């Protein structure tokens, strides 16, 4: 019995460091909220939550003070389209849980079940100031990739903040191939799926009784699409062509309840005013300047700049399987903001595009995205401009806990950087 108690004690206290009371003082605070930028400000953190933000705040007793004088303080960054936690090694199919193939479901695929909080990419990403990620399903054998999730990157047994946070449908060339090889087929399939889900929601008894049998989607996929057609879950449409973007705008007009989000949208600048008028947000990569196919002939690094100038809500993210995206490069989202600023986006708008805008788009803005009282304490202290590649975080706080700036990469660096070539140790003796 005593041994059992000791084991329980060890399991309980071997977990992540608990949140504490912290006071970050003296820094230039970019709140990305109503208070804007605060010089020589203070952020008070009580447990997992921000208690207060402002200038001249008194630090109560019992708070550990972190002096950020001469440094920049921002909310934790967010990359909204990644495969962090579900892809460990890209070349190993067994280490890839972000996609589904040859399965009887499509829209019902839930990527949250595959997220591994101990994936090596979690610390690799967070030490670059990224504290939240959208984890997206990709590359399935159907038009619907499945349901994505939002995760924090702190030390915890479960890092999923919101499961089934968004639905992804691929309307690019890749997606149209799955629908018979034509955009006509892809859009018909998408509209039919939404219609079937709406019908299922209002006639569930008939479906359960087997009256409806001529639908294209299975009951489990229809059930997954019901929150989409009701407007509870965003529908992320991956597309690029200006003509397809106009089709998405028309779909939003046909179904006002849909919360459509455009992902990719490389030709979005061509219809920026229409997107702004329709109120459709865009998740895009600011580093794309060359077409990869005929559907993105008008690609330009001015895309996100022009979208933002037109009044479109823009979030910056890389491709889920490519540049500044996926699993291993999701950490570099600040570079996307830097590139956007270099091409004309205002600095504050770029910061919003990697903090509060993705939070708004994916439905977690009430808890995250800005430094305001009552929100989750995701805070990063930088030694310089966060968008400058030579700058780096000096402290990363996730949900009130300061996480160590250590990853597999830093451990390898520390182990071998100063090693004398003539004195290489045997690994098993260390």
Overview of the structural elements:
This protein is α/β, with parallel strands linked by helices and 430 residues long. The chain has 2 domains: 2-74 and 390-414, Urease, subunit C, domain 1, CATH 2.30.40.10; 77-368, TIM Barrel (Alpha-Beta Barrel). It contains 13 helices and 16 strands. The chain has helices at residues 2-13, 121-126, 173-178, 183-202, 204-208, 219-229, 242-254, 272-278, 303-310, 333-342, 347-353, 356-361, 408-416, and strands at 21-30, 37-46, 49-55, 64-67, 72-75, 77-82, 130-135, 144-152, 160-170, 235-239, 260-264, 282-284, 314-316, 379-382, 393-398, 401-403. The strands form 2 sheets. Strands 1, 2, 3, 4, 5, 14, 15 and 16 form an 8-stranded mixed β-sheet that branches. Strand 1 and strand 2 (37-46) form a beta hairpin. Helix 4 crosses helix 6 and helix 10 (333-342) runs antiparallel to helix 11. The chain is globular.
In short:
By secondary structure, this protein is an alpha/beta fold.
Which percent band covers the strand fraction? 15-25%
SSE string, helices as H and strands as E: HEEEEEEHEEEHHHHEHEHEHEHHHEEEH
Annotated CATH homologous superfamily of the largest domain: Metal-dependent hydrolases
**How many β strands by DSSP?**
16
CATH A-level architecture of the largest domain: Alpha-Beta Barrel
Stretches where pLDDT falls below 50 for ≥5 residues?
1-16
Largest sheet: 8 strands, mixed
Question: How many DSSP helices?
Answer: 13
CATH-defined topology of the largest domain: TIM Barrel
Q: State the share of residues found in helices, binned by percent.
A: 25-40%
Count of discrete structural domains: 2
Radius of gyration using CA atoms only: 23 Å
Structural category: alpha/beta
Outline, from the CA principal axes? globular
End-to-end Cα distance, whole Å, is: 35 Å
Class of the largest domain in CATH?
Alpha Beta
Oligomer: single chain
Query: Roughly what is the average pLDDT, rounded to an integer?
Result: 89
């Amino acid at each position: 019995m005593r041994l059992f108690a000791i084991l329980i004690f060890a399991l309980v206290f071997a977990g992540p460091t608990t949140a504490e009371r912290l006071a970050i003082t003296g820094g230039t605070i970019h709140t990305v909220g109503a208070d804007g930028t605060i010089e020589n400000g203070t952020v008070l953190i009580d447990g997992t939550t921000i208690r207060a933000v402002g200038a001249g705040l008194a630090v109560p007793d019992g708070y550990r003070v972190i002096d950020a004088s001469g440094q920049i303080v921002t909310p934790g960054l967010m990359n909204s389209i990644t495969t962090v936690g579900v892809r460990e090694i890209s070349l190993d199919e067994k280490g890839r849980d972000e996609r589904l193939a040859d399965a009887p479901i499509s829209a019902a695929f839930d990527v949250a079940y595959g997220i591994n909080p101990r994936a090596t990419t979690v610390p690799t990403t967070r030490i670059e100031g990224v504290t939240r990620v959208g984890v997206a399903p990709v590359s399935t054998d159907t038009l619907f990739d499945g349901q994505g999730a939002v995760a924090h990157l702190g030390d915890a047994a479960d890092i999923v903040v919101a499961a089934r946070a968004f639905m992804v449908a691929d309307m690019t060339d890749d997606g149209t191939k799955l629908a018979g090889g034509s955009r006509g087929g892809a859009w018909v399939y998408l509209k039919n799926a939404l219609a079937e889900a709406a019908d299922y929601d209002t006639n569930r008894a008939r479906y359960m009784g087997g009256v409806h049998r001529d639908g294209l989607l299975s009951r489990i996929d229809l059930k997954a699409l019901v929150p989409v057609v009701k407007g509870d879950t965003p529908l992320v449409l991956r597309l690029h062509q200006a003509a397809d973007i106009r089709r998405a705008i028309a779909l939003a007009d046909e179904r006002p309840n849909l919360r459509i989000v455009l992902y990719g949208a490389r030709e979005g600048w061509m219809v920026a005013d229409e997107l702004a008028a329709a109120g459709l947000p865009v998740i895009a990569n600011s580093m794309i300047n060359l077409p990869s196919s005929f559907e993105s002939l008008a690609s330009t690094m001015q895309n996100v700049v022009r979208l933002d100038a037109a009044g479109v809500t823009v979030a910056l993210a890389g491709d889920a399987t490519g540049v500044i995206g996926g699993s291993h490069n999701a950490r570099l989202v600040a570079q996307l903001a830097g590139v956007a600023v270099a091409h004309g986006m205002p600095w504050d708008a770029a910061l919003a595009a990697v903090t509060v805008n993705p939070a708004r788009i994916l439905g977690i803005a009430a808890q995250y995205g800005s430094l305001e009282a009552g929100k989750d304490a995701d805070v990063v202290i930088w030694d310089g401009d966060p968008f400058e590649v030579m700058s780096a975080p000096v402290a990363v706080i996730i949900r009130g806990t300061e996480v160590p700036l250590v990853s597999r990469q830093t451990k390898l660096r520390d182990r071998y950087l100063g090693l004398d070539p003539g004195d290489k140790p045997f690994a098993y003796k260390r």
